[in-house]
């Protein structure tokens, strides 16, 4: 039988071939792995640079599984399933059996609708193209998912009071192998002419092999010889066949006694050779009573080992319970493989066949492991495991069974949600999976929100609202800082300042305020004046922002020629001790027009203070810069300067002269007023 094949791919890297083809890998964002050459160091080797160090380029290969949900059809599936997932979480594991069955069927209806869309897309796609092959692959994946989900629903959710599974297995086979039923439908539409078709008896046999006795009886009524003794006896046998009511009625013991009586009576009629004149009818009846030889002649015709299993159980063990199904399935599988081999065919079990066998054996460990290998980016295993956990049907072997179930479910939600958070179009869906995960999921959600590639400010505001609602203040701050940096790079300085203020990060606000002040000192152009004018109380986030806002207020007073409040504000700034050292030249130069005014705007005391700041702040700063330049002549040193005057020495001389003139005028005026 076919074994599971491990995917093999090659990475060509000349550097790694020199050291035994060794590579090292590391998980990066999402499920992406960065792979690079690696020289293994052991106890017998030295960790020294090789002769290739710094010569050959190091190639980093990014490996990532194919993400199928970028396709629009599958993206609609994941969106609809997400709504159902949220509805399931709202039940908080307190729903009824009906609630969980309804949710399971909703999931399956979403899958079936997706399959129909995929089939339509495959029909429209051109032949022998990659697009058509892709859609056919998707159809195969989601058909397998729906088949396994349907069986899981039967075995774990939609259980009957008696725990008998055969009637539901018949529906499952009828749903997934509809060929015989479709042929029967076409034949029933033909009426009395149906028996003339070559498909008449093959359709009847297919129906009987699948346990669809009622449809087979309807087809038999269309035969011209329906009034003959053989056909009447066949109808009588089928009509008298006992049917077990899974929702009550006879006990299993009483049903089995009736069943055994019916089998014995039917075998007696066959022994009497009443049906020998109609070999096809006789073969049908032999199938119905579970005749081993007759079944063996038909088993090898099925491509899938489980196609005729429910029908065989229906005729041989109609009261088969869930716990008996694993034994029956293994016995039937051995028989199917043996018949295939006798016919010269190699029996092959595909991945879906193995999953169904594990499911019938109730081996949930193997089931979960197997469905993780389906190429659906873990969508199926995540949703099925979550559903079984919520309805209390997830049974795994472990010392602490419930804890193991929780960990398994949470780990799957964590991986799937984290994967969706890396997709620019699906991150909002990924939030739900992480939000309903453990505390680790909530922490990962906060981290993932900061990694979303933001394309517009509207999207950024939307993410910030989510962060604020969920209390992710660190994420909110990080997003604001990223937006501030991006706006600064795009020369949208007002936006940059607003985002920095919103981040409430003192260092970041200070850096942007520094940028605006330095730009003004070099060019004389005050950037984003409207934003600065409306900062208000938010300026207290950073002392540098306070200085920027207050200096802007001085700037506005001065432009409006309102010199008295401008002079007062300027003197306060000089005394504030929050002036950045690079701005001392600009700030002191601003005093010159006020000091040179014929009508003194600055009193003698304030003039002395300006002169003090000149000598104690600016002059020592200049001397310090000069000494640094002499000590390190090749090192670029930021010489203090203002856009209005290039020579720093000239600034000092002008300021000293202006202070002397204003001081003399101010003293005269002040003394005159006092006299």
TrEMBL record:
Swiss-Prot/TrEMBL GO biological process terms: mRNA export from nucleus; positive regulation of DNA-templated transcription; protein import into nucleus
Record's function text: Functions as a component of the nuclear pore complex (NPC).
Subcellular location: Nucleus, Nuclear pore complex
Record text on subunit structure and interactions: Component of the nuclear pore complex (NPC).
Keyword Membrane recorded: yes
Family statement: Belongs to the nucleoporin Nup85 family.
This protein's GO CC annotations: nuclear membrane; nuclear pore outer ring
Protein name: Nuclear pore complex protein Nup85
């Amino acid at each position: 039988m076919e074994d599971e094949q491990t995917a093999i791919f090659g990475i060509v890297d000349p550097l790694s071939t020199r050291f035994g083809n060794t590579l090292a890998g590391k998980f990066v964002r999402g499920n992406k792995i960065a792979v690079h050459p690696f020289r293994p160091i052991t106890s017998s080797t030295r960790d020294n640079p090789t002769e290739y160090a710094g010569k050959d380029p190091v190639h980093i290969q990014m490996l990532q599984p194919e993400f199928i949900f970028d396709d629009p059809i599958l993206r609609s599936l994941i969106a609809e399933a997400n709504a159902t997932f949220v509805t399931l979480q709202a039940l908080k594991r307190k729903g009824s059996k009906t609630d969980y069955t309804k949710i399971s069927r909703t999931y399956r209806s979403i899958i079936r609708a997706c399959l129909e869309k995929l089939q339509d897309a495959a029909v429209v796609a051109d032949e022998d193209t990659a697009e058509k092959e892709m859609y056919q692959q998707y159809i195969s994946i989601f058909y397998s998912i729906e088949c396994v989900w349907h069986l899981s629903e039967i075995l774990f959710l939609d259980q009957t009071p008696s725990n008998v599974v055969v009637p539901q297995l018949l529906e499952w086979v009828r749903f997934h192998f509809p060929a015989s039923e479709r042929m029967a439908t076409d034949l029933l539409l033909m009426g009395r002419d149906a028996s003339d078709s070559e498909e008449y008896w093959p359709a009847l046999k297919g129906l009987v092999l699948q346990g669809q006795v009622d449809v087979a009886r309807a087809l038999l009524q269309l035969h011209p010889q329906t009034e003959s003794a053989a056909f009447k006896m066949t109808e009588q046998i089928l009509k008298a066949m006992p049917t077990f009511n899974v929702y009550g009625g006879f006990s299993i013991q009483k049903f089995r006694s009736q069943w055994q009586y019916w089998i014995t009576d039917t075998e007696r009629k066959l022994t009497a050779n009443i049906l020998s004149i109609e070999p096809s009818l006789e073969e049908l009846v032999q199938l119905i009573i579970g005749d081993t030889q007759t079944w063996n002649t038909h088993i090898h015709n099925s491509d899938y080992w489980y196609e005729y299993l429910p029908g065989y159980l229906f005729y041989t063990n109609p009261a088969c319970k869930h716990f008996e199904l694993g034994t029956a399935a293994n016995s039937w599988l051995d028989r199917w493989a043996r018949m295939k081999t006798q016919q010269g065919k190699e029996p092959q079990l595909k991945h879906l066949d193995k999953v169904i066998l594990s499911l019938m054996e109730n081996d949930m460990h193997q089931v979960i492991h197997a469905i993780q290998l389906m190429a659906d980016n873990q969508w199926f295993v995540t949703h099925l495991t979550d559903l079984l956990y919520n309805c209390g049907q997830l049974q795994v072997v472990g010392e602490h069974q419930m804890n193991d179930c929780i960990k398994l479910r949470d780990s799957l939600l964590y991986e799937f949600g984290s994967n969706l958070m890396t997709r620019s179009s699906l991150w909002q869906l990924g939030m739900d999976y992480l939000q309903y995960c453990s505390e680790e999921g909530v922490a990962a959600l906060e981290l993932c929100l900061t990694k979303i590639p933001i394309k517009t400010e509207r999207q950024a505001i939307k993410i910030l609202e989510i962060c604020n609602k969920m209390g992710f203040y660190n994420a909110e701050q990080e997003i604001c800082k990223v937006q501030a940096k991006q706006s600064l790079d795009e020369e949208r300085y007002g936006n940059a300042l607003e985002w920095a203020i919103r981040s409430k990060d003192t260092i970041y606000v200070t850096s942007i305020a520094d940028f605006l002040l330095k730009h003004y000192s070099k060019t004389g152009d005050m950037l984003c004046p409207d934003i600065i004018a409306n900062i208000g109380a938010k300026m207290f986030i950073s002392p540098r922002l306070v200085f920027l806002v207050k200096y802007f207020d001085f700037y506005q007073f001065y432009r409006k020629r309102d010199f008295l409040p401008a002079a007062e504000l300027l003197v306060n700034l000089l005394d504030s001790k929050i002036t950045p050292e690079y701005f001392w030249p600009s700030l002191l130069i601003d005093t010159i027009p006020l000091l040179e005014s014929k009508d003194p705007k600055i009193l003698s005391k304030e003039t002395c203070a300006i002169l003090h700041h000149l000598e104690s702040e600016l002059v020592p700063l200049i001397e310090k810069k000069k000494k640094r330049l002499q000590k390190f002549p090749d090192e670029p040193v930021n010489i203090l300067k203002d856009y209005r005057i290039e020579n720093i020495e000239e600034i000092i001389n002008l300021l000293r002269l202006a202070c002397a003139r204003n001081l003399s005028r101010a003293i005269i005026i002040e003394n005159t007023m006092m006299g």
